[in-house]
Amino acid sequence: MADPEVDDTLNETLDDSLWSLGVYDAHCHPTDTMDVVPEIPKRKIRTLTIMATKAEDQELVAQVARNYPDRVVPSFGWHPWFSHRLLDDMKAGASGVTISKTEHYRSVLTNEPTEAFIETLPEPKPLSQFITETRNYLEEFPSALVGEVGLDRTFRLPNPASLIGPDDKKLSPHKVQMDHQRRVLEEQLRLAGEMDRPASVHGVSAHGVLFDSFSYLFKGHEKVVRSKRTQKRGPHDFEGDEDSDEDTGPKPFPPRICLHSFSAPPDFIKTWLNPKIPAKIYFSFSQVINVGYGYERFAEMLGLVPEDRLLVESDLHIASIDMERHLAGIIHRISRERLWDPPKTVETIGKNWINFVYGETASKALGL
C-alpha cells in the first residue's frame, strides 16, 4: 500500500493499440479517494484489482465492485498497518476470554502505549467477526481475492493530532507486535485456502518472517520434486514423487499468491520459487515502489522472475490518469530490462493476471 506524491516525471505513455491488448492493474487503492472513483470507466486500464485494508473500506470496495463489475476485481483483507485494531479471539485458548481495550492494545503494540494514546484508538474488532464478514464478501464476489494482507516491520502508528505538541513527532514509537501480525495474516490465509482464492501480500522489512509464515501453513502439503536421476527412470518406475493434479480439498493457504511491489533482496525470489512450494507465486512490480524509490537491484531481481509469474500494478490511492502513467512507466521499464517489445510485455502480463485471478484451469474454461 502506497500513498505517493504525484510524480510529474512520469511521461511515458502507451499507444492505444497496447491498451487495447488489455492492461491489468494487479494492486491499487482507489477507495482511498472515493470522489474520483467515478472516473474508473474513463481509465484505459482494462481491470483494476482493488484492495481493502481495514474496517472502513471493506464495504467501499464492495460498492465499487457492484457499480463497475466489468472493470473491477475486489479484494477483501486487513492490512498489517491496521492489524492492532483486530482482537485475536481465534488463537488457542482465546475462546470465551475477554480483555479490555487497554489490555488488548498494550499486548499487541510495542513500547507500551499510554492510556491517552489508547483512548484515541478504536474499540478492537474481534478477528473472528472480521473473518466471517470477509467470507460473506468472498461468497458474494466469486472472483474476489483476499488482500491486502501481510507483514510490516517498519510501520509505526501515527501520533493522534490531539496529542502532538510543538516538539512532538508525527509518528509514535509504537509498532504492531510481529506475533500479532502473523496471527492476523494466518487466519486470512486460511480463509483464502478454504475459499480457494488468491491473495495479494504486503511484505516490508520482514521478508524472512513472511516466508516462514507461509512455510508454516505449507507444512505437510509440499510438492514432491523428482530428482534428475528419477526423472530419467520413467514415470512408472517409482511411486509417490510426482506432482498430482488431484483435488484433495481445501488447503490452509491460498492457491496463488501475489507478492505485491516486491522489494526483497533478489535471492528471495529463488526462495519463493522453490518447486516444493504447493502454491503458485507471482511477483508484482510498481513504478512507485520498485522504480520511484530508486531500488538499485530491480534489474537483477526482474531477471530472476519467470515469464509466467510477472505482474504489474500502480499501488495508487486514486483512480486518476496517474494510474495509467504509472502502469505505462513500469511496462516500459520491464520491456527494456527483459528486451521485450511492449506488445509482448502487455500480452504476457495480461495473461499472467488472468491466470493469477482465475487460475489456469478456470481461465481456459472461460476462454480467457
UniProtKB/TrEMBL annotation:
<dbReference type="InterPro" id="IPR053044">
    <property type="entry name" value="Metallo-hydrolase/TatD-type"/>
</dbReference>
<dbReference type="InterPro" id="IPR032466">
    <property type="entry name" value="Metal_Hydrolase"/>
</dbReference>
<feature type="region of interest" description="Disordered">
    <location>
        <begin position="227"/>
        <end position="256"/>
    </location>
</feature>
<dbReference type="GO" id="GO:0016788">
    <property type="term" value="F:hydrolase activity, acting on ester bonds"/>
</dbReference>
<dbReference type="Pfam" id="PF01026">
    <property type="entry name" value="TatD_DNase"/>
</dbReference>
<dbReference type="InterPro" id="IPR001130">
    <property type="entry name" value="TatD-like"/>
</dbReference>
<protein>
    <recommendedName>
        <fullName>Metallo-dependent hydrolase</fullName>
    </recommendedName>
</protein>
